[in-house]
Amino acid sequence: SLYYVTENGTNNNAALKMAVEYLEYVGTESLTAEELKKEFYKLGCSFGVSAGQEQTYVYLTGLSENMDKAMVLFEDLLTNPKADEAALRKMIDGEFKVREDNKKEKGYILFSGLLNY
Q1: What is the pTM of this model?
Q2: S-S: 31 plus which of 1, 35, 86, 89, CB 3.0-4.6 Å?
């Protein structure tokens, strides 16, 4: 496992949460998002990004013998992401659906809404 931790979180930039989620939908100049996922699968590796309030976590996990190749792919994704308008629309639509579903779920209303109130 390889972890990068930065001292910037959603308290510094509220849009950071959506930006790190979008990273899963984009590809690079040479690979589409689907091809990139297939390459990570072939290497037995996976990556993730999450934004907390104070810190942002970027991690790469997988087989140690393939970590060098996976790091090259991962760093290419982090430094050269290629925006995709269709993927952005898909992510936004998915977020709206989650929000609508949460409004109807009693457990979410209780533990997120009323508890914060």
Answers
A1: 0.73
A2: 35
- 62 contacts 43 by C-beta, under 8 angstroms: yes
d(CA 75, CA 98): 30
Q: Is the pLDDT of residue 91 over 90?
A: no
Q: Which of the 8 DSSP states describes residue 10?
A: T
Tokens standing for 56?
A: 């942002």
Closest to 24 (Cα-Cα) out of 79, 100, 88: 88
What phi-psi label fits residue 9: left (phi over 0), alpha (psi between -120 and 50 degrees) or beta? beta
